Structure formats: structure tokens, C-alpha cells
Amino acid sequence: MSGVGRRAHPVQLAAPRLGDWAGGDTGPAWVQERASQQPGPELLLTALVHGNEYSGALALDAFLRSGLLPRRGRITAVFCNMAAFRLFDPGRPDASRYVDEDFNRVWSVQCLDGPDRSIELQRAREIRPLVDRASHLLDLHSMHEPCEPLLVTGTLPRNIAFAQSLGTASQVIVDEGHADGVRMRDYGPFADPAGERVALLLEAGQHWAHASLEAARNVLMRFLVAAQAMDRGDVPSGWLLPEALPPAPVLVTDRVVARSTDFTFVQDFHGGETITRAGTLIAHDAGEPVYTPYDNCVLVMPSVRQLRPGVTTVRLGRRVA
Ligand SMILES: [Zn+2]
User: Fold this and answer.
1) What's the pTM value of the predicted model, to 2 decimals?
2) CATH architecture of the region 250-319
3) With 0-12 CB in 10 A as exposed, 13-18 as middle and 19+ as buried, what is 115?
4) pLDDT digits (tens, 9 = 90+) for 139-170
5) What class is the 19-234 domain?
6) Ligand 1: distance of its center to the CA of 73 in Å?
């Protein structure tokens, strides 16, 4: 079964041309603000946290080109890791995720205030004031493998409820983040149980698939409406996918971490599969079997594309009410 899930995926979407949004005259580069005269939410829309995941950047670019303004509050659009995005090469599309380190693992106060230096830390420190002021964050990502869209919420009920209210078919994934560093959506006030700030991370589908752009546009507009920055009637035609009922959220309970580079799934899993029986074989790692730990176990984002010892190959979860 060697190689299951490791085929190259076609680059259906051309990389966006973002030159119009360089900005930087009065603040950090690659930041655009659109403000209303009326008070309202402080929305932060982020793309290119990972430099090769540009469906979100295409959606943000389309939003900015549309000329739409918020009815209430302010929308700040940030193209986060342009240093990595500039390295994008359709012949090696996985190689431009980051330059020095993963931009989405540096968002602890300790790390941001610490002495370490990297391209990504420098950029995170630059845009941190924009993250600090946000009442609502939508962070636009995509996935290595073809998969239905996911909304990653962290564990706080307010984020889960907000994601479930959007009217998309996106699977809500309730998780505690990563052991190897803090994501932007888990940063400071977003993770405060007593707070009110909302932060969602969209995994829109495979990085370079047309469907991922459609999903990103749909969620972006629905997010703006749900946050009350815009009214439903303001959304131009062509942006929204049909209203859908989301499935029950999946609570991530386990991560399967590769112990070797000889890790293979027994099937071409795409994520979202529910494995009915506990003890079902799902993979081999260096010849050792990997079994599901409980009945009705849901597979979340299976991928061996970045395979090396220590890397998460699949998350396991349960559906919750
Ligand atoms: Zn990403």
C-alpha cells in the first residue's frame, strides 16, 4: 500500500496577483482596511498564513476587488506570509508553506515576546496589533488532500456555535490546537473562556482545487453577515453556495503521530469517514498496525504528504451533540 495518498494533486487555480494590495504606507505591508462610518465588529480576515494555500488569498482578493464596504465596523484583510507565497512554484507546490518556520505555531505570548528571530516571527510581531484588536478572526487555509471543508474552532462553545450558525456544510472540528506551537486562532484573547471574541480557521478543501475557492468565498461572506458587518442583501450574486445544515461537530480526541517514514494508510482515506468498530486497522507504521481506539471514530485530515517521524498523519474524533 506504499504511497497511498501521496500522489501529486493538480494545480487547478492559478496563483493570485496581489500587487494592488501591497499597501504599507502607514502600517504593515499587505494589509487592507475597509471601514464603515457606523460602529460595529472589528473583523480580521487572514490568508496565506501558509504560503502555498492561496484559495483564501483568491477569495480575499475577490472581496477587495468587489469594492464592498462593511455596513458596520471595520474589515481588515491581511496577506500574512508573502515571503513564503513568493516562493510558490507550481512544479513544487508543497515547498512554499513557510520560509523559516510555521507561521501558525508562533502565536504564544512567550514566543512573540521572546528573543527568537525568523521571517515568520517578524511578520507575526508586525501584524500582532491587528490580531489584538480583532473581535472576529476568519483565518483562511486549505488542505494537502482533497477533503470536504472544515471549520476548526478550538474548544470554546462560542466559536463552535458561531461556526455551526453559518449555514455551510463545513464540518466543525473541535480541537485543542498543536503541541508544537500556538495557532493564530488560539492566540491570547481568542482562547479566553470569559471573552467574547470569535476566531475560526477554515480548511477550504485541497489547496489548488476550484471547489476550495468556492468554499472560501462562501464562508467569507457568511462570516461577514454573521458578524453583522454586512447584511445578507449586500452579498453580490455568485458568492454564496446554497444554505446547508452542518453535520454534528467532531471533537478531536487523538492524533496519530508517525514514528517512521514508512507510514501508510490501508485505504485512500479522504477525511470525514466514520469507522464503526473499535480496533479497525487504518494504517501501518514501520510495519506496526494502527487501529481505531473506539467505535464510530471519525478520521480528520488524513495525510502523509509532509511525512516524517513526529508529524501528525490523521486526527481521530467523536461526533458530539
Ligand atoms: Zn494552513
Assistant:
1) 0.94
2) Beta Barrel (2.40)
3) exposed
4) 999 998 888 899 999 999 999 999 999 999 99
5) alpha beta
6) 27
